[in-house]
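Sample intake sheet
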Amino acid sequence: MNGSPKLGNRASTVLARRLGRELHRLRTTADKTQLQAGGAINATNSKIVKMESGWVPMRDPDIRVLCEFYGADAKATGRLMELARLDRERRKAKGWWQHSPQAGALAEYIAMEDVAHRVRTWQLSLIPGLFQTSDYARALAVSDGTWEDPDDIERVVEVRMKRQARLTGESPLEVYAVVWEAALRQKVGGPEVMRSQLEHLLEMAHLPNVRLQVMPFQSGGHPCVGGSFNIISFAETGAVDVVHTDTIASTVWVENEEEGAVYSTFFDRTARLSLAPKGSVSLIDSICKGM
C-alpha cells in the first residue's frame, strides 16, 4: 500500500477513516440516515458519505452538530474532535517524506509518526527503524533487493536517518520498544556493522523518552510471536491509537478501536514477559561484546 488512496485532489487518510467509521457507527446506532445527517449540518448526503469514508477533512462545528444529532456524550464528541484536529494537522504537514520516492509505503507511516505523541513497537527480527545506524539501514536496503542503484539505496538510508529527528528536540517522540533477542543476534551487514548497531542501541536506551526491553529466548512462547507491529498514539490518554504492521507484500493499518485494543493488550503482555530495561541493557551489552 503506497501512501493514501486518492479521490480527485482529496486523500483518504488513516485518521480520517478512523473518524469516519466512528461517525458511521454513531449514526447507525442512532438510527439516522445519511440524508438526515446531511440535513443536520446543511449539507447533502454525499458529504456525509465522503466524511464517513474519510475522504475529506472535517470541521469541528460539523462534528459537534452531528454528535449532538446522534446523541453522543461530551467525552465521545471531544475524542472525535481531537481526531479531526490531528487529521487536519496531518493533511497540512509539508514533510520532507512527500518528496522522497524512497519513502515508499513508509510515507504514510512517517507522516503519522511526525504528529504522534508516542509509539510502542514490537520487533521480531529487526532493530526498530528509529534506532538503526546508517550502516545497518544500508545493509538492510541492499539485502532487500528492491533498490539496485547505489544512489537510491543511499536515499533509503537518508529516509531512515531523517525519521530519527523525532527522538530529540522540543517535543521528542516517546518510544517504548520491545525487541526479540533474535534481532540482536542476526548479523545484518556482518559482525562489525552489528557491533556498532548494538553500541548505538545502548545509547538510545539511555534517552529519557525511550524505554527499551528485550524478550530473551529463555522466555519461550509469547503473545506476539505472530509478527511485528507499531502502535501509534496521538494523545497522552492513549484514547487515539492506530496500529501499523507490514506483511511481505503490503502495509496494513488496523484502524478499528476494538482490534487496536487487542494489539495493545498483546504488547503489554509481551513486555511483562521481557527483561526489565536494566536487564535488557545488560543482555545487549553482553551480545555486543561477544560479537
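Comment: Strands lie at 6-7, 10-11, 118-123, 174-180, 210-215, 229-233, 241-246, 251-254. Residues 41 and 206 are 51 Å apart (CA to CA).
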